[in-house]
Amino acid sequence: MIDTASVVPGRYAHRLPDGRIRCDVCPRFCKLSEGQRGFCFVRERAGDRIVLNTYGRSSGFCVDPIEKKPLNHFLPGTPILSFGTAGCNLACKFCQNWHISKSREIDTLADQASPERIAEMGVELGCRSVAYTYNDPVIFLEYAVDVARACRERELASVAVTAGYITPEARKEFFSVMDAANVDLKAFTDDFYWRLCGGHLAPVLDTLQFLRRETNVWFELTTLLIPGENDSHAEIREEVRWVLDHLGADVPIHFTAFHPDWKLRDRPGTPPETLRRARQIAMDEGIRYAYTGNVYDPEGQTTYCHGCGEAVIGRDGYVITRWELTDDGSCRACGVRCAGVFDGVPGTWGRRRVPVWLSR
Q1: Has residue 89 been placed in a domain?
Q2: pLDDT at residue 105 above 80?
Q3: What domain range is 31 assigned to?
Q4: Are residues 77 and 45 in the same domain?
Q5: Does residue 329 share a domain with residue 252?
Q6: Taking every pair of C-alpha atoms in the chain, what is the biggest distance, in angstroms?
Q7: I want to staple 26 with a disulfide (CB 3.0 to 4.6 A). Which of 79, 89, 261, 299 is the partner?
Q8: Which of 189, 186, 266 is nearest to 225 (CA)?
Q9: pLDDT band for position 100 (cuts 50, 70, 90)
Q10: 240 vs 188, 292, 303, 324, CA distance in Å?
Q11: How many domains does the chain have?
Q12: Cβ-contact 32, 44 below 8 angstroms
């Protein structure tokens, strides 16, 4: 049964000749009869419309470091108020937030807050931005958009942590209110997307090109490298070359370590040397900012000037240890500007993670 207190009409759907209603938010295009839920579980047919049944409900709120999203070139060192809901429109067998993204229990949504309340708390907690994360915000588009608009009124930035699996129609509105994004480019073969995620690669690449060509959203990429699945030299090189050709050398790429989880527990974790090799391939091909993640690797997490090679942002995990940029983001040594969104001196939030309750 739908909890009417957390229901709002969906904005992207149309009726089919056979009487079903098709949800047009993501490329799954779920066709629903009365009472049916979409693959994501949170978009449901009720009468003559599709509704979002988790509006205003969250699986939790937490103040994180911005680098945890991960974003290394967007307001470094600052705190970000993060939240998600439940469900997902992909079926990644290696999901590390599966208890949220694959939840079918309303009890997962333990906290609640209006868009205005989230924006107010972001300001009160000293955050510079709000992140739509933990599960993909595409599926709670109406809620995310309303929160982002409320944040914009209070000069808070909005950050989407997403797989980019969204239709051309819906993404225009969604990204129009986002200031930054980390897009999870899960692999560079359609076979991987289909076997391990239940989706396709092409819509994600289409979203990335849209972000580059038609928006001012700052975005970075993350690829989780899974041994034996998407970690070959050839595939990494193919991905990097596509990024260079279609997005440009300034888009940062984070190569992160897999650990066995959910339905993919029979694979070993990613060796650190695999991440370092991927980073080196990216830099050799011409990517200016390539990083390693989910491992201890200060060198692989440091930002280097592409002009002179100087370390301009040193990091130890989520802690900034060195800052050699001017107020406008230029290298102090040679004057070449580092790509990103910077605001004078960096924040000092560090590695803290502070859960908060907004409904109390």
Answers
A1: yes
A2: no
A3: 4-52
A4: no
A5: no
A6: 66
A7: 89
A8: 186
A9: low
A10: 9, 15, 18, 27
A11: 3
A12: yes
